[in-house]
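One record is set out below.
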Amino acid sequence: MSNQKPRIGVDLDNVLFDFTPAFCEYSNAEFGTDLTSYSYHEHWAKIWGQNDELLPHNELMDRWHYMIGEKFFEKILPIKNAAEILRRLKELGYELVVLTTRSANNPADDKEIRRQTRDSLSRDFSGIFDEIHFLGIWKGADQEKGHQITKSELFDKLNLDYLIDDQTKHVNAINASGEPRGILFGSFAHQEDAAPNTPHFDSWNDDLLKYFENKINGR
């Protein structure tokens, strides 16, 4: 590493905030589903569909708009010990950067989801993060915007040294180049396809802190 402080990118949902149980509870109450943290996955049209049929796209967008309007993202609780461990990582000399795929097609919804996200970070992680980056990879194909950047591409663009994320697709993409710099976080069914030897921590704990302490000390 150079004289510049090493930089850790940190995912938002299921890493900083307890998204999956909050989503399942909200969906069950508002939309009559029977979701659990184990049955949840990112394909919302599928988990919200019935009789093996996908939820129509317009209904999916209506629900998404409704959730944003109800300030769902402001209500998600932070994951236990996250702020404490992150402050200690900052004290060790790391720069901490948020990378999130939270986004919306509607510009007004997109602005609102960013506001809710920034307010939640200010409330629960005040003074911890140096930067916040929103990725639009869920916005779909947009011929005017062209290619939507992925986390692994933004990882390189921002000169990050590590990424902590619950999604194996992001971690595996970063680790495909050699040294494992993608760190898998949490314990979820969608992590079954993690590449061998991927660093994996179930929670914000002393083992994770020690891992990064050894890294910054060159051990």
In short: The CA atoms of residues 93 and 197 lie 26 Å apart. The chain has two domains: 7-18+77-216, 21-73.
